[in-house]
Amino acid sequence: MRAPLARLVPICALGILIAIGLTLNGVIEQDPAYHNFADQRGYFGLPRFFDVISNVPFLVVGLLGMWAAQKRLVPGPRRIYWLTFFTGVALVAFGSGYYHVEPNNGTLVWDRLPMTIAFMALFTLIIDERLGLRAGKVAFPNLVGLGLTSVLVWHFGGGDLRLYGFVQFFPLLAMPLMIWLFPTSIETRGRMRVFGFAMVAYGAAKVLEATDEQVFDTLGWLSGHSLKHLAAAAATWFLYRMMCLEPEGPASV
C-alpha cells in the first residue's frame, strides 16, 4: 500500500509545529513537585501502597497481550510490534512500581523507559497499518530508538524534557489524524470504536494525573494518580481487544 504523499503534509506540519513550539519554549525541567503524590499512605511495609499496587493491571494486560499475540498473529512485523507494545506495558508495572516506592528523578527513568517503548510500538502499528509494511519497518527501530533517547537525554543531558515532550504528544495527536487520512481495508467499526475507547481512557488518565490531590481530597480513599494507573491500564486493555479484532494474517502489503 502506497500512501499519497499529499496526505502526509498535515501530519508532517503537525510535527514541525510541535517541534518549533517546544524549541521556542526553552529548556523544560522536571518539576520537583511532580514527585509529591497526594496519597502517601503505606501498608504492609510498602510506601505509597496504592500508587504501587495500582500498577499490577499493566502486568496482567501485558502478559495477556504477549500470549495472545504469539497465539493469534502470524509471524511477521505486526506480531513483533504488538509483542513489543505489550512487553513495554508489562515492564511499566515494574518500572512505575519501583518509582512509586521512592519517587525521584533517578527512579522515574525506569518508569518512563518502558512507557516510551510501548508508545512508540503503538505508533509503529498505526504507521504500518495506514502507510504500509515498508513504512512500518523503517519507523519501528527509529521510533523506539527516539523514545528511549528522549528519556536518556532528559536524564543524562541536563534535565531537558523537550524531546520527551515531543515523543509523548506528537504520536498522540498524529495517530487519530493518520487513521482519518488513511482508511485501510482492515478498518472495521468495531475495531476503530475500541481504539477510540483506548484514547478516551488514556485521556482520562492524563486528567486524573493532573488532579491527583483534588481526587484524593474528594474520595478520601484513592488518589487521582492511583486511578490514573487504572485508567491507563484500561486503555491498554482496549488495545488488546483491538489486536484481537485484527485479521489473523498480514495487514499491509
Draw up the topology in text.
Elements: H1 5-25, H2 49-53, H3 56-72, H4 77-101, H5 105-131, H6 133-156, H7 162-181, H8 189-210, H9 212-219, H10 224-244
Describe the structure.
This protein has 253 residues and is mostly helical. The protein has a single domain, classed as Rhopdopsin 7-helix transmembrane proteins. The chain has helices at residues 5-25, 49-53, 56-72, 77-101, 105-131, 133-156, 162-181, 189-210, 212-219, 224-244. The protein is globular, with a radius of gyration of 18 Å. The chain starts with a helix and ends in a 9-residue tail after the last helix. 38% of the residues are buried. Residues 249-253 have low confidence and may be disordered.
CATH domain fold name: Rhopdopsin 7-helix transmembrane proteins
Helix share, percent: over 70%
Return Rg in Å. 18 Å
Dominant shape: globular
Describe the main β-sheet briefly. Answer: none
Structural class: mainly alpha
Q: In the CATH hierarchy, what is the architecture at level 2?
A: Up-down Bundle
CATH C-level: Mainly Alpha
- What's the quaternary structure here? single chain
Number of helices: 10
Q: Strand share of the residues?
A: under 5%
Q: Low-confidence parts lasting 5 or more residues at pLDDT below 50?
A: 249-253
Task: Determine the mean pLDDT.
Answer: 91
Count of the domains: 1
DSSP, total strands: 0
Distance between the termini: 5 Å
Order of helices and strands: HHHHHHHHHH
**CATH 4th-level superfamily:** Rhodopsin 7-helix transmembrane proteins
